[in-house]
């Protein structure tokens, strides 16, 4: 009997140890959130039309792969600097920063470098020397001049096809007004210069009636267009905008002043190909725009930020390529009524 009870105790002990091992072993439920890296993201302001679509693409790309700490910098660089400090304190493994002011890039890099955290800048490009100063810093965006060149080609092609109707004073020149983005912003400066240079290169004369900053904003675009119509009236032959938001503001003003009814028409071009602009092109109230591919910019930003957050090579497993300035360049595409489906596809 004693041997029997001893055997029972040994068996009981073995079962107890086995049971305890089951609760702490590989069969225990895993905490998926603990496995996902934290990535800190700052957007210069959430209510920017274009950046809202880039943000959505980043969020979509991150689902099930990373925990995002998203921040609205409210167009204030000091606020963004504080947000970067906060994200670093929360233990992010990488940063994705849409700068309020590109000149602040050295400050952000200094913070990231001190914490040994990689940083991906996107949409607003730091100076190449700044990116070069930190081996864990890269950029995702576009070639700023390309959008201006493409916008200029849209204008040239349309003017040549409609010169008899659009050249109101018959002088062979385009009398234009231009809504400029944020002064000093690389995209604003490049789009303003290269769009006009492309028109001139095609042998078309131009006369600038007005050029003022609308700060990428539709309300400001409308206010400026209201003032310009009051001042110049039918002398204006073309409206050129550095982005779609300002172009849409101008269209709102033009509609209020009787344009796009009957034979009263004004050609308006923008950049970005946001959904509202796509609808205006379909309706015939906007001539064209340039697709600034928010979907792919957001995807590329996340891909690079995720790779470096998980200790991989920045381009590992992606379709992206870096140029000699440590930048991924997402190409622009001209959009008119003839290929509107290309822009629509970018938002699916």
TrEMBL record:
Residues 39-312 form the Periplasmic binding protein domain. GO terms for molecular function: carbohydrate binding; metal ion binding. Pfam families: Peripla_BP_4. Keywords: Calcium, Metal-binding, Periplasm, Signal, Sugar transport, Transport. Residues 1-19 form the signal peptide. It comes from the Bacteria. InterPro entries: Bact_Solute-Bind_Prot2, MglB-like_PBP1, Peripla_BP_I, SBP_2_dom. PANTHER family: D-GALACTOSE_METHYL-GALACTOSIDE BINDING PERIPLASMIC PROTEIN MGLB, D-XYLOSE-BINDING PERIPLASMIC PROTEIN. The ABC transporter complex is composed of one ATP-binding protein (MglA), two transmembrane proteins (MglC) and a solute-binding protein (MglB). NCBIfam families: PRK15395.1. This is D-galactose/methyl-galactoside binding periplasmic protein MglB. It comes from Tepidibacillus fermentans. The lineage of its organism: Bacteria, Bacillati, Bacillota, Bacilli, Bacillales.
């Amino acid at each position: 009997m004693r041997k029997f009870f001893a055997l029972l105790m040994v068996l009981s002990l073995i079962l107890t140890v086995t049971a305890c091992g089951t609760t702490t072993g590989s069969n225990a439920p895993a905490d998926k959130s603990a496995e996902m890296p934290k990535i800190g993201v700052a957007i210069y302001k959430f209510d920017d039309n274009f950046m809202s679509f880039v943000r959505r693409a980043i969020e979509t790309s991150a689902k099930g792969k990373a925990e995002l700490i998203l921040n609205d910098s409210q167009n204030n660089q000091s606020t963004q600097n504080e947000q970067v400090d906060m994200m670093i304190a929360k233990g992010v493994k990488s940063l994705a920063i849409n700068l309020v002011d590109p000149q602040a890039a050295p400050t952000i890099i200094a913070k990231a470098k001190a914490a040994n955290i990689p940083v991906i800048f996107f949409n607003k490009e730091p100076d190449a020397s700044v990116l070069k100063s930190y081996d864990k810093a890269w950029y995702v965006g576009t070639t700023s001049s390309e959008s201006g060149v493409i916008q200029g080609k849209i204008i040239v092609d349309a003017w040549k096809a409609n010169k008899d109707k659009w050249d109101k004073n018959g002088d062979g020149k385009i009398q234009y007004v231009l809504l400029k983005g944020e002064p000093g912003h690389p995209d604003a400066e490049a789009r303003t210069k290269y769009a006009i240079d492309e028109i001139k290169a095609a042998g078309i004369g131009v006369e600038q009636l007005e050029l003022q900053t609308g700060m990428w904003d539709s309300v400001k675009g409308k206010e400026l267009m209201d003032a310009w119509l009051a001042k110049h009236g039918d002398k204006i032959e073309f409206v050129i905008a550095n982005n779609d938001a300002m172009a849409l503001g101008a269209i709102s003003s033009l509609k209020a002043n009787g344009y796009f009814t009957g034979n009263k028409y004004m050609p308006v071009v923008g950049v970005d190909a946001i959904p509202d602009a796509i609808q205006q092109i379909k309706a015939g109230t906007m001539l064209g725009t340039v697709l600034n591919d928010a979907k792919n910019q957001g995807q590329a930003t996340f891909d690079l930020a995720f790779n470096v957050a998980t200790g991989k090579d920045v381009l590992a497993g992606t379709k992206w390529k870096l140029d000699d300035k440590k930048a991924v360049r997402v190409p622009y595409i001209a959009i008119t009524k003839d290929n509107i489906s290309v822009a629509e596809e970018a938002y699916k």
